[in-house]
Amino acid sequence: MHVLLVDDEQMLLDIGKLFLERQEGIRVQTAASAEEGLECLEKGEFDIVVSDYQMPGMDGIAFLKELKRRGDSVPFIIFTGKGREEVVIEALNSGADFYVQKGGDPTSQFTDLIHKIRQAVHHRKMEIKLEDERNRLEQVSENIGACLAIIGPDFRVLWTNTVTREICGDTEGERCYRALHGRSDECPGCGIRRIFENGAERATFERIFTGKAGKPNYFEVISTPLRDEKGAVYAALEVAVPITEIKEAEAALRASEEEKGIILDSVRENITFQDTDLRILWANRAAAESIAMKPEELVGRHCYELWHQRDVPCFGCPVEKAMRTKKPQRGDMTTPDGRVWFVAGYPVLDDAGKVQGAVETTLDITERRQSQDLLRMIQYSIDQAEDLILWFGKDGRFIYINNAACSLLGYRREELLDMRVPDISPELPPSSWDDEWRKAEKGGGGFLRTVLRTRNGETIPVEIRGTLVRIRDRPVICSIVRDLRERIRTEEALRASEEMFREIAQRSSDMIYTCYHEGGIAYISPAVERILGYTPDELIGEKCRDYILESSSDVWQRCYDAVSRGKTIEGEVIEFRRKDGSAAVIEVSESPIMHHGKVVGVQTVGRDITERLKVTKALEESERRFRTLVESTEEGVMIIDRAYRVTYVNPYVARMLGRDQASLQGSTYEKLLPPEVVEPAREMSNRVFDSGDVASFTFFYPMINRWFDVTIVPLQREETQVITLCCVARDITEQKQLGQSLVQANAKLQLLSGITRHDILNQITALLAYVTLLKEEVPEKPEIQRYIDLIEQLTYRIEGQISFTRDYEDMGVKQPIWQNVRETVERVRGSLPLDAIDLSVETGTLEIFADPMLEKVFFNLIGNSIQHGEKVTAISVSACERDGGAVIVVEDDGVGIPEETKEDIFRKGIGKHKGYGLFLAKEILSITDMTIRECGRAGEGARFEIEVPAEMARAGS
């Protein structure tokens, strides 16, 4: 078995050849492309093609279609890793025998492939075998008077000859007993059943069938098996020999000897009457003339002696068998001269049923069988042709159509045989048919492009070649019709491809040109004028080498030699001479132009990189200056990759750590940072790697007793992924020390404030006591009492203000911290007189960076709703994301705040009770850049929105 294996992967070709040739009887030839595979098929014969689907240029399905177009019916298997359903469907619809998907265990994969190879080859051999049988039968069938039919195992008619079709009509696909014998059920003693179920080698019976004309037809039916090369029965041949004439002759023989002679001498078959010893008693003229004798010379001689030159009867003689079985018998016999005879024996019985002898009829079917074999081959070729073959007469009615015509037009054969050419040709109306016929008759046929209309109304462009011929003096036209859809699609695709290439070339910023060894530049894109200063017209016909600078002549020659050998060049840099004499640095990619296997030119794409080289030099200079700046800065700079290894460190870091700069290259966080800082640094780096945002953190380095503020920024990216980070470390030790001094100063001020507040409150207490005594001693005059009351009120107000400072003396003193909003509000809940008011908190895991006095903010906001909302039944605290940060909303369902006072409520001493709560809440929030505003509607409730910047908000755990 010769296998052609096609794949663009050499490794897969080698593996496939190794696995397949391990099987006995398999020989493999490989091809690296569909085009190479076509060449192999032209040069040699193969039993099967196994092809990959996805290959450069022509893919596997296009390869299969090309083979079908060429009329090559070699079995074809798609063997590929591409398993999309639409690819499988297209492959099978295009005529592939099997589809095997690559992947998995090689042994089981190639076992499956080998099984399908054997199956496809065997199936093809069976098809050829059946086709050969049909061809042989068709060749014989047209000249033999017998009805022939091939019957499948399911009793369906697979093929019939012309005689059968004339009697029974088109019966292919129908059950044989209904189609051929006019029965509704199986024939008694069915020979087909005996062949398929009992393994009979031959089955014979007689049938009477009333044909289309109403006349009874007598047949002797002989069934024989058709076997493949392994001896398996795949179909049965049924031969129905018309014996009507013989039956009538027998009746005439019994009625009148005179009529017998006249009738029997007039038939074309050889007829003899023999006794029980096979001795000829009478012979007709045809029998005697078949061996150049006279009828009377045959009398008394044995048939086997005269025709077969034998001394004993022939094995399987139908005459001998007919007398023995008292039933007609038939069979084919070959005489020593090579002629084939159809022999029938009919027993002659007396009134008592005793055998008196037999009538033998023979018919020389040698030439008929040869001609029928030839006709079968021709008929099969026509029926299997991909082109449409249509025969029609002067009236435009179809005489013959092949399978391709039925398939393309969507009609059954019998439907088309009842139609005329104008019925399927919209461009040829019936009214103009006579004129068209006269033109064809005058010109003997012709060639035209037109369209045909299918059964479903689709119009198909076709190319028709018609030839006028005469059959029995009757003019008919044989038309060969070719479907042009694929050709038109190919031409349109090629035209679109050429237009697209030219459009791309015309618009491309690159210089694209085609140059032939003979004739110079044939095409060059408009970009050449921008790059070299020449117009395309100035360069057409010129030689490329004439525009290459001397400095690049060696490079150009090397490229030229490589392309001349059929190689492709990419990324070579060549200096061209501009029209003004200056140099243009061009990066070229070249591929050979082939014609009949020979390199005749080169296709080149040239990109002007003159400016890019300048930019590269400028970038190198910029990088040099940047490195100088980084290495002279008094801040630590490190570049870290995704493995947390140092790929660059500036001298400041080395000096700061007291180590050699080179020794720090390749170090990890564990070798650079204090142990307690390593994990936070990794987490911060991961955040920058994942998000691409900037991050920073502060840490203390005990070994050198210094504080550092580190900023991490993304540096290099590959597509959307950050691959390196830049870490800039700034020494903030002095700031830390200054901050600690400030904290100590604040603590002292806080202590002084407490002492002072205590002394002032003591003085106020004494003042209030004196006011009380004064009320009792001063005469009850209204004017004096009013002054005393004012003094008392002012004293109480001073006391309240002094007490207020106790609650807020820590504001801004301590460092801000990250605080969970929900937990902060929950801590405030217990200090508020909520009573029947519902307080809901829906802030999730939001954390904000705020002064430790954040609780006072929510205490004041919620307390403000309780105290001034009047009808408040519900207070809610919620949060949502905004612009990378967050918004915290505190709202109630009370009376709200009038529009005219919304801005004033955050000022000192503004509000119903002239307090400082909202003013101080705003100040506490502003410490970490947060803002607050009131945006509720009067009468519907108060709504406070706290805006938290992105860097001051985060999702907690």
Description of the molecule:
Helix 28 runs antiparallel to helix 29 (782-807) and helix 30 (821-829) packs across helix 31. Strand 4 (76-80), helix 4 (85-93) and strand 5 form a beta-alpha-beta unit. The radius of gyration is 54 Å and the shape is elongated. The protein is of the alpha+beta class and 957 residues long. 25% of the residues are buried. It has a 5-stranded parallel beta sheet with strand order 2-1-3-4-5, sandwiched between helices. It has a 5-stranded antiparallel beta sheet with strand order 7-6-10-9-8, with helices on both faces. Strands 12-11-15-14-13 form a 5-stranded antiparallel beta sheet. The chain has 32 helices and 38 strands. The chain is 40% helix and 28% strand.
- What amount of the residues lies in strands? 25-35%
- Provide the helix percentage: 40-55%
Radius of gyration: 54 Å
**Main sheet characteristics:** 5 strands, parallel
What overall form do the CA principal axes indicate? Answer: elongated
Q: Count of DSSP E strands?
A: 38
| CA-CA gap between termini | 71 Å
How are the strands ordered across the major sheet?
2-1-3-4-5
- The low-confidence runs, each spanning 5 or more residues with pLDDT under 50, are 910-915
Mean pLDDT, to the nearest integer, reads 82
**Oligomeric state of the chains present here:** single chain
Task: Please identify the structural class as seen in this structure.
Answer: alpha+beta
Number of helices: 32
